[in-house]
Design goal:
about 550 residues, alpha/beta, Rossmann fold, GMP Synthetase, Chain A, domain 3, 3 domains, 5-stranded antiparallel β-sheet, 4-stranded mixed β-sheet, about 40% helix
Length: about 550
């Protein structure tokens, strides 16, 4: 049996409880407004979608593009496409139509399923010869189809059968289609579910999960499939501006997030307490300092008193207002999480479990063990895979989670899959306990004209931690004699100078940042400097700020 057989068996068994909820608003009474379906009702919608697909005489292995925001119908379509033996190509609905068309031209879908008419029309405008396009509204309108394929089991899948092509975010170039197999997904779902059993202490009943990230991303997709396999109750966000209020309403047991979100939450709490002022701010500030001294092994008796007071009075209130009373852990992936941020949430009594992986590893290589979290590290390798360090401390992985290759790109595939090992491009280290740490990205290495190789990420994190008003810090200096920085956000030159002085004092001379420029406008998806899932496009930043970068080096050299 494949992972799809297991998912459908679980869905059929959930006939009374709501399994999938599409949230659209938050009422004054604190209840989530929207609509939901039981597992069996979701299977009925999958049946409708399968009937629609079958009527088009598509054959096994044909690609079906899925361009829509998160919704119950998105989930039904995803399952239906795979159940029919087709390959699902989930795409980010907020990307520019021209970018979507480029990816679809690459994979040549036989059918494009769109969430709304605006998406369909945008695709057609950029691709007049596009293959057939169908709207969700038309797929799910035919009530006569409701039970047409309920009795049909999913098309059998072998472990090597490709079930999805997920496009990478393309930080330095054109996005590539990652071919994910049924064996990849089945193995990862076993690993994720086992870790969640530990987190939930094998508690009977439904886990309560909040799903906010777009489902076209590998980590979000795996989270969804894991939830369906477990029969969890999933609330899907459809409006990111409501995220903070919905979290309190949903009160999840856990949810998957990214470092940028945790950083925003942390800064928002600090800002709110600064505005509140008074005794609460004083106690909170002292407790934070005491907690950090405790982590460094130099806590005093008075530190213990401040922490006990804050744990009794302040931190429970923050937790309740932030996320609700049920949270067992925050699960964080997609990019390195700063140690300070992880410790901050642990100080509040909220465990942060880190995950490391790439789309090419079906989203996961390592998972924190909920019983043995080591702050600053991303946990041990998942079951039945191997990880080791290669040249230049590059992380290499092999096992059942490794993708089948890039769609129609044999050269690029051969570059990263060598002798059975996937070369991640990430630098790392592993300690005696088997816990991994991600230290940088090989392609991001800055090589000074002195020959020194510098991973920019740790230095950027240190600077950002000292600049509450900053949004991003990006180091530049490849081929130059020293490092410089571009800082975005609301801050003054004096603040930036002070932060750099403090960080430089801890660094060897070749890692010190000697110049900077401030940009009030943060990098974003909209201005083209972040990828669709929020990763930095360093090459694009360098091109956009070329004149400012040249000016920094010209000024210093003149001096």
């Amino acid at each position: 049996m494949s992972f799809l057989d297991d998912i459908f068996a679980k869905l059929e068994s959930v006939d009374k409880e709501t399994l999938l909820w599409e949230s659209h608003d938050t009422t004054a009474t604190g209840g989530a407004a929207g609509w939901g379906v039981t597992g069996r009702e979701l299977v009925q919608r999958v049946s409708q979608a399968r009937a629609c697909l079958a009527a088009r005489n598509l054959k096994k292995g044909d690609r079906c593009a899925l361009v829509a925001a998160n919704s119950v119908e998105w989930v039904a379509m995803d399952l239906a496409v795979m159940a029919e033996g087709l390959i699902v190509v989930p795409l980010y609905s907020r990307q520019a139509p021209s970018e979507l068309v480029a990816m679809m031209k690459d994979c040549s879908p036989s059918l494009i399923c769109c969430g709304d008419a605006a998406l369909r029309d945008g695709i057609l405008l950029n691709w007049p010869e596009a293959p057939p396009r169908v709207l969700f509204a038309d797929i799910f309108a035919g009530q006569d189809r409701e039970n047409a394929r309920l009795s049909q089991a999913p098309t059998p899948h072998g472990n090597s059968d490709v079930v999805a092509i997920i496009y990478t975010s393309g930080t330095s170039g054109e996005a590539k289609g990652v071919m994910v197999t049924a064996g990849n997904v089945g193995h990862i779902l076993q690993c994720t579910s086992a870790q969640l059993d530990i987190l939930m202490n094998n508690r009977p009943g439904q886990d309560r999960v909040y799903q906010w990230a777009p489902l076209n991303f590998a980590a979000a997709w795996i989270t969804l499939l894991t939830s369906l396999l477990r029969g969890s109750s999933v609330v899907m966000n459809t409006d990111l501006s409501k995220l903070a209020s919905e979290l309190r309403t949903v009160a999840p047991d856990y949810f998957v997030n990214v470092p940028a979100l945790l950083e925003r939450v942390r800064k928002a709490v600090d800002e709110q307490l600064r505005k509140t002022g008074g005794v609460v701010l004083a106690v909170y500030t002292r407790a934070k300092a005491a907690y950090m001294r405790k982590q460094e092994g130099r806590a005093s008796i008075s530190d213990s008193i401040w922490l006990a007071l804050t744990n009794a009075v302040v931190f429970p209130t923050i937790r309740k207002k932030m996320i609700g009373p049920n949270l067992k852990a925050l699960i964080c992936g997609s990019a390195p999480l700063s140690l300070d941020t992880q410790l901050y949430f642990m100080m509040l009594g909220i465990p942060v479990l880190q995950v490391y992986g790439l789309t090419e590893t079906t989203g996961i290589c390592t998972l924190d063990d909920p019983r043995r979290v080591e702050p600053g590290r991303v946990g041990p390798a998942i079951a039945d895979i191997e990880m080791k360090l290669g040249e230049n401390q590059e992380i290499m992985v092999r096992g059942s989670n490794i993708f089948a290759g890039y769609w129609n790109r044999p050269k690029e595939t051969a570059e990263v899959l060598r002798d059975g090992w996937f070369h991640t491009g990430d630098q790392g280290e592993v300690n005696a306990a088997g816990n991994w740490k991600i230290t940088g990205r090989i392609k991001n290495l800055i090589i000074l004209n002195s020959g020194h190789n510098i991973a920019p990420e740790p230095i950027e994190d240190e600077i950002l931690a000292r600049l509450p008003g900053a949004q991003q810090v990006v180091l530049v200096g490849n081929g130059r004699s020293y490092l410089s920085a571009i800082v975005t956000g609301s801050l003054t030159a004096d603040q930036a100078e002070a932060a750099l002085d403090a960080v430089n004092a801890t660094l060897p001379h070749f890692k010190q940042v000697r110049a900077f420029r401030i940009s009030a406008e943060p990098f974003s998806i909209e201005n083209g400097l972040l990828t669709a899932n929020g990763k930095l496009k360093r090459d694009w930043v360098a091109r956009r700020f070329e004149s400012e970068i040249e000016e920094m080096y010209a000024v210093k050299q003149a001096v």
